[in-house]
Amino acid sequence: MTATRTSLKNLKGENAAIYAKAKKAMPKAPRLTKEQADAFGRELDALREGVLASRGAADAAYIRRIIALQRKLEVAGRATIYAGIVFPPALVVGSLTLGAAKILDNMEVGHNIMHGQWDWMRDPVIHSSKWDWDTAAPADQWKHSHNVEHHTWTNVVGMDKDVGYGILRMTEQEPWQPRHLLNPLNNALLATFFQYGVGVHDTGIAEVRSLKGLRKLSPANKAKLKAVWNKVKKQSLKDYVLFPALAGPFFAPVLAANIGANLTRNLWTYMIIFCGHFPDGVEQFTAESVKNESRGQWYLRQLLGSANIKGGKALHLASGHLSFQIEHHLFPDLPSNRYPALSKEVQKICAKYGLPYNSASLARQFGTTLKRVVKLGLPTKQDLKRTFAAAMA
Prior knowledge:
- The structure is a single chain.
- Helix content is 61%, strand content 1%.
- The chain has one domain (47-392).
- Helix 2 packs antiparallel against helix 14, helix 3 packs antiparallel against helix 4 (89-113) and helix 4 crosses helix 10 (251-275).
- A two-stranded parallel ribbon has the order 1-2.
- The relative contact order is 0.15.
- The longest helix is centred in the N-terminal third of the chain and has 27 residues, at 57-83.
- Residues 1-27 have low confidence and may be disordered.
- The chain has helices at 13-25, 34-54, 57-83, 89-113, 139-152, 183-192, 194-199, 211-215, 219-245, 251-275, 295-304, 313-318, 325-330, 339-353, 362-377, 381-392, and strands at 308-309, 359-360.
- It is mainly α.
C-alpha cells in the first residue's frame, strides 16, 4: 500500500527540532529485544491459531443471534416512536431503542463482519464482501481506510489517518498551529457527526483547507466523495423523509426521534473508538520506528498503541467488543465473541514479558482522552514564540 510517511528528513528547521523533542517526550513502555519480540509474537500466534482451529457452530450461532437481535430492536424502536404520537414519552424510548439498534448494526455486526471475522462460515450474506451497514461510510472505502491503513499502521503518525481524523491535533509530533485552538470544538463536532467523519475518511478531503484544494481533488477521490454522498442521500431519505412521512401530521416529532437515534449512535461509537486509541498510556509511533518491523514487533506496537475498557457483558456487546481494543488490534479478523477469553491469555503473556496492559474504566479512559484533546489544543510558551516569530517574519 502507499502511505504518507512522517520523517525528520521531511521536516526543516524548528519544526524538525520540535518533532525530535516530541519523540523524546513520548512515554515509553519496557522495550523488548528483537529476539524477545519474536518470542512474544510466537506466543500470540499460538493463541490465534487456537481460535482459528476451534471456530464452529457456537460462533456462527452467536453472530446470527446478534443480527436477529439488532433487527428486532430496529423494528421495536421504530414502532415505539410511532406510539409516541399518542403517548409522547414513547418517542424518547423509541429513539433510544432505535439508537441501540444502530449501535449494534455499526459496532458488533457491521464493523466485525466487514473485518472478515465471519468469512469462514461461507455464508452468502454474512460475509465481508457482501455486507453493508447503516452509516455514511461506503463499505469498500471503509474496509480500505480501516482494515488496511489503520490496522496496518496503528497509531503511526503520518500513516494512520485515525490519529486526529484530519481535524484534531492528537499528537505532540504535529507542530502546534493557531487553528489547533479549535481542538475542543472540532472534537465536539466530530463526535456529533461521527458517521460523516468516518464516511469521508478515505476520500482525501481531510487534507483540503480551501475551495481551491477541493477542486484539485483527484478524479479517484472525487468518485469516492460521490459514493459517500449517494450513501448519505439514501440514509437521509430513509430516516429523515420516508419514516417521518408515514406519521403524516406528526412528521416533526418522528423526525426528531430519528435524528436522536443517529446522534446516540454517533456519540457512542466516537467515545468507544477514541477510548481505545487516545487515553493515557497509549503510545504513538514514528514512521522510522516501524521500518522493517517483524511480526512480533508489529504485535508489540498493537499492544502499546491500544487501550481496553473494563465493564460487563452489556458494555462489551454495545461496543462491538472494542472494549477489548487490545485484542482487536492484535487479532482483528478473529470472532469478536472470543475477545473476553483471549484477553485473559494476553494479560498472562504480557505479565511474562513485563509489558503493560492498558485496561481501565470507561470514565478513566474517556476522561484522559478529553484531557489530551484540550491539552494538545493549547500552545506551550515555545509554540507561542515560534508562531509570533513566524508572523513577524
